[in-house]
Specification:
By secondary structure, the protein is an alpha+beta fold. The chain is 41% helix and 23% strand. It contains five helices and eight strands, in the order H-H-E-E-E-E-E-E-H-E-E-H-H. Strands 1-8-3-6 form a four-stranded antiparallel beta sheet. Strand 4 and strand 5 form a beta hairpin. Helix 4 (120-129) crosses helix 5.
Length: 172
């Protein structure tokens, strides 16, 4: 666990109404939501604190309850580029739950932030106790990953078109 993690100052636990609006928990009933989330660690970060770094091993995802987070990726020339800006209700780190590969980006807080940490072990426990809730969460993760892939495909198509246009105009 990175050094920036510290326990919350009090027994502050998000309530079902707050969580029901977050896509990863969409479709879960209030009692399931409260019972599951009550066991998840709540993490507070200050501006500039890193949640995880590109290349780190990880087996957890994070749900942003409050604050602002940036996702940055390092190029081959070691230049950092922001690839996403996340706010309350967003989640990140799900790839490490599914593919067991090193982290693909660095994530850090831009503002004071409050997050829930959901590990692969937490999901496994849910799988053993409540298959329906587990299936709902995994399907919600898959939907978000599909949405993100569609956005990335659109960005890539626009980039390739712009490069091709620039190249063809330069040759004239």
């Amino acid at each position: 666990m990175p050094e920036s993690y510290r326990p919350p100052p009090g027994p502050e636990v998000p309530v079902a109404e707050e969580l029901a609006e977050i896509g990863i928990f969409g479709g879960l009933d209030d009692s399931t939501l409260e019972n599951f989330v009550r066991k998840l660690p709540l993490i507070r970060l200050g501006p500039g604190e890193v949640v995880f770094r590109e290349g780190d091993q990880g087996r957890e995802l994070f749900v942003l309850l409050q604050g602002e987070i940036e996702v940055v990726k390092q190029s081959k020339s070691l230049r950092e580029t922001r690839v996403a800006l996340l706010g309350p209700g967003d989640w990140f780190g799900e790839m490490s739950i599914l593919d067991i590969m090193p982290r693909s980006a660095t994530v850090r807080a831009l503002a004071p932030s409050r997050l829930l940490r959901l590990s692969a072990q937490d999901l496994d426990t849910l799988y053993r106790k409540d298959m329906k809730a587990y299936a709902i969460i995994v399907l919600n993760i898959a939907r978000e990953m599909s949405r993100r892939l569609r956005v990335a495909d659109g960005i890539l198509a626009d980039l390739m078109t712009n490069l091709a246009d620039t190249y063809s105009h330069a040759k004239r």
